[in-house]
Amino acid sequence: MFASAPVAVGNAPVDEQLPAKLPPLREELELFPGAPTIDGEPTWILRDPVAHRFYRIGWQEHEILLRWEMPSGAIARDISKLTTLHTETSDVAALLKFLATHNLIQSRGPMALKRLKEHAEKVQKRDIVWLIKNYLFIRIPLVKPDKFLERTIHLVRWLGTKAFLWLTILAGITGVWLVQRNWDGFLTQFPYFFSFQGVVVMFFTLAFAKVLHELGHAYTCKHFGCKVPSMGVAFLVMWPVLYTDASDSWRLTSRRQRFIIASAGIATELALALYATLLWNFLPDGPLRSSVFLLATTTWIVTLFINLNPFMRFDGYYLMSDSLGIPNLQDRAFAIARWRMREFFFGFNDPIPERFPPSTYRLLLVYSYGTWIYRFFLFLGIALLVYFLFFKALGIVLMVIELAWFIGRPVMNEIKAWLERRNQLTLNSQTKRTVLIVGSLLLFLIIPWQSDSIAPGLWRAETHTRLYTPLPAQITAVHVSPGSIVREGEVLFELNSPQLDYELEQGRIIIGLLEWQTEFQGFNADLLERAPVIWQQLQAETATQRARAAQADRLLVRSPIDGVVRETAQVANVGTWVSQNELLAVVLAPSQSTVEAWVSENDLSRISAPSRGRFYPEDPTRTPFDVTVSAVDTASTRELQEPYLASVHGGGIAVRVDQNESLVPDNPVYRVRMTPVEALEAPEQILRGTVRIEGERRSILGRLWRSAVTILVRESGF
After folding, report:
1. Does 294 share its domain with 264?
2. Is this prediction's pTM over 0.85?
3. How far apart are CA 672 and CA 453, in angstroms?
């Protein structure tokens, strides 16, 4: 549900002289009593039926409107004489300007033409502004339901009775009791919605629930005598949501009635969920039961999560506004928060915009700050969503617009307001504190105090090798175990391949036959005629047999280096059948060790040989040690070969697993190889840790700027 909140008339600056006779108000305007303020002050609502907007005015503005036909100079004197109000001519001028700004007066002659021209120019200038503000929120009226609601409201009035309320509660209790008896069957409904049919059922069910939600608002609004001029669909970040224009409810003087209208949609979906819970227990399996399941679970939870959010102008906002008795809640809370912030930083000693009880005052401050924080992350999320929804170049442009307009613009507007009042600044405790805070922050951001780069790393033997199976075979002998000292060329594993043995035996038979044919070709004319072919076959088969013999020799898996067996695979057991390229063991030379780290693209330019660093092992029993950078890769790591550092295995490098089950870094990382300053024996196994590397000093602001430019260039494809 959307509604236009009343706007309180404030004392606007007046730059024009009052005419002797005030221009007449538009004849179609309506004025009727409004709800009293939180402190009991009477209010009135001024309705513009053409623009369908409502304006909340106070006692003083009401008295001025009652005397609008009087000479302008006599209005203030008459109010001050006949009431307890102290009204000045500037108050009349402020109301006149407000009415003129909102096109609530009749304008004729050159002045009217001037205002119309200025308004047209503003509209033209606002076209791009409107486009920026509304391209992610478009509201499309679809129907004018007021007459339909008038004709059909008698059919639904029973839904608002106490009897229906108690019947709904009873149905809900019964449904929940029956569901908990068949809880496992209830939960089995969830996987259904991951199919195409489930998605279709979900779409129509959600649409049905939202239509009833909006009808709940509409019928309740009509029940209290208000008009519903339109219902339609709004696109919020390209996502369709239904809306009901219930702004006419502002004519109601009862906060309770407006509260009921605002909560009617949520109440409708909750009642629907309770009856759906009961109905699920009696329906057979199928699309209808799945729809009822959705109504009983997902729809009302999503509704509560979104619609009860008071930080956006949905149902929760209007419920909070009516509960506090503060129309136009957000703008008034923002005014209080801006005043409090300006007083905190600068001590202008401005009067508070509105006075509230201390508890309400604190609540408004918390609400306004919460809204600002919520909007920051919301608009940041929208910007990222826009980036991923469109192709990269357009996505970046729209994301920049989002960040600049919805986050940067409010901040700059507030800074602009501060600068405009710089002549009012005095040296007080507030300004001293502000200078100290801002100065410290700038120094923190600008001074290049950051020099170290922190990266995940590994400590291992400088020389190491992995031994793999050359071909599918059976392990027939294992001569080593973890920790065994081996020499170069020593046989570690013996494998047997029956297929290779068969091929070797067949090769020997074929070679023997071809050699016999070659020896006896002189005694046979046919063999003599085929001599060249036989010779070629013999040469080819001999070469093939030598290759088979080489493969057979590789079945004796030897150590290529002098070292220590760090680990053997679980499959490395006698009698086990292994496939080709399956890891058998890792052999390392413990005499020398090395450290390898992977740094981000932002830190790459600050690191070069022979920069110093320090490695901190993840194992707390190991002592950290100093290292020296020996080499830095100029190309990023396309595929991470070290699973120890992958995020999927608890490491510090964010990776994704591609279709080939390779570990691909999410962001570019570059390998940096380092050597311990003091000679250290390599650990028995690879140790994970963190490396702090000294580099070129750079400020935080400079690093952020470099990161932003790098991402912009990389993602745009320049």
Report:
1. yes
2. no
3. 12
